[in-house]
Design brief:
This protein has 329 residues and is an alpha+beta fold. 48% of the residues lie in helices and 19% in strands. The protein folds into two domains: 3-199, Jelly Rolls, CATH 2.60.120; 215-326, Homeodomain-like (Arc Repressor Mutant, subunit A, Orthogonal Bundle). It contains 14 helices and ten strands. α12 packs across α13.
Amino acid sequence: MDALSETLRVVRLVGAIFIHGRFTAPWCYQSPHADAAAPLLEPDAERVVIFHLMTEGDCWVELDGQPPVHLIAGDAVVFPQGHAHRMTSEPGLAPASGARLDEVLSRRPRLLAYGGGGAGCRLVCGYLACDARLARMLLSGLPPLLRVNVRGSNAGTWLEASLRYALAEARSPRPGGAGVLAKLAEVLFIEVLRIYMNERATPDNHTGWLAGVNDRIVGAALKAIHTAPAQAWTLEALARSANTSRSVLAERFQQLVGSSPMHYLAQWRMLLASHLLCRSNAPLARIAEEVGYQTDTAFSRAFRREFGQPPATWRRQHGQRGQREALPH
């Protein structure tokens, strides 16, 4: 299993669609920074990543200090660092001053119809909530605005059709519509990352975790780490798994991922341990063993360095949230 699949398998993501809008020119709305929207979208989330999918027509997206980006039907746009942005029928329009965000989000997905009656477009707006450490890992090295067109893949065509169906179901009296939309939001976000990796996140012109996964040498080491995090890895053993030398692996890993292989291994073990603590009742000794520590004392020491408190204390503070997230939405 590749590193991205293994990461998504063990770390829970929470997604949702919160707006399904039809806009007619002229129109413009301001989306706040993700940190400002997070308490309204997913109160328990450490990090929220907002995305939009253009399902019909076209529009523009503006970020301060950057040229406007034209979106066409099938384009999905993600804001990895959570930047505030404007969605608009044409660059330079002033954002509308309407209902407060909490009022707009009081019902999800919120159906919006807004604009001056000109050329129309349809947008689906969603978010993905995750651990802040996971967000830093997955999204490092990405541009402030990431755009791909999902209509170039079979999965994207299926996703658009499924979203249209699920949005219609969300308005029906049949139960489960919101749950289907949540899962589709997660799948859409993951598909956007996969398309981006395939098209643009190459080690020749990008750095970051996704570029590392795409690299022959670093990707092999990441796959080894994520497939067997409890193994007693050394730099030499990881280099053998990547069919390269220790010096080449260390240099390439640092260049793309921004840390040494062994430091990355320690961070991944701690992220994995935090999710096991939050979502299971397993004894500390067993969790320590699952993430590669021979004793719970060594594990507790490493965990305290990363999170600032012992694992038992962290579990008491975060376990209730993990149990809520584990429940079906």
